[in-house]
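seq as requested:
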Amino acid sequence: MTLLNLFYSFKPKTFAPPRLQCHRGFWVDGLQQNSLASLKKAYELGYKISEFDIRITRDHHVILFHDDKIGSQKVSEMTLAEVEKHQKVDSFESVMQWFSQIPVGEYHLNIEIKSKVIREPILEKKVLDLIQKYKVENRVLISSFNPFRLFYFRMHCPKIIRALLLTFENDPGNNFILKSQVLNLLAKPDFLHLNEKYWSPERYKTLLKQGVPVVLWTCNDPEQVKKYFHQGVYGVISDTLKPADVKNFEKTSHVETLS
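C-alpha cells:
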C-alpha cells in the first residue's frame, strides 16, 4: 500500500470511461451548451461519453447550467422561472429520462456538480435519487471541484465513479486546500480531471506510475492530444475533437472494471 491509496480509490470501476469526452455536449455547430439537445447530438455523432454541468435553483430544481451567476445574481438564489427569463434550460431529470432509454454500454455521462456548499447536500441528494430512480448508477461518473460533493457520493453510492476536478488558477474559491488535494482523504476519487494548462508528465509521474487515471480538459488540438496519450494521460475532454480525430493514436490504458 502506498500513500496514494489514502488519496485515491484503486477499486475496480463499474466501467472504463471512454478516452474522449465531449465537453458540455456537442454544441460548436450552434446548439446550446449544457442542453439535452447537445447531449443527444454528441450521441448521434458517435461520442461514447459527454460531460455536462448541473446546478440547483432556489426552488430546488436541478438544471443544466455552467455559470455561477446570471448577471450579478447567483443561480442558487434564483427560482427556475427567474432563470428562464434569461435562458431556457433543461432539467437533469429530462436527461435521465432520455439517457435511461439508450442501450447499456453505448453512451455514458460525466455529471459535473457545480456547488461550493460544504453542508446541506440538497443538490447531491436530488441527483443521486434520480440516478437511482432511472437505474443508471453503472453508466455515469460524478465530477466536481468540491471534494465534499464527491465525499457524499462515496458515502451514499460508492459504485458511482468519482472524478476530482483540479486547476491552479487564482480564483477566490480555489484555495490552497483544494489545490493541495488534501481533502482527497474524504473524496477518494477514482480519476483526476486536470486543467490541460497544468499538465506535466514529470509533475504527475507518480500518479501515472501508481495507476491513477488522469484526464485533461479542455483539449482541442489533435496533435497535443496525441502527445498527451503518448505521455500516459488516460483521456481528454474536448469541445471540438470528434471520435475519428483521436482513434488512430489512442494507446491502451488499463482501468480495472467490475466483472
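The mean pLDDT is 95.
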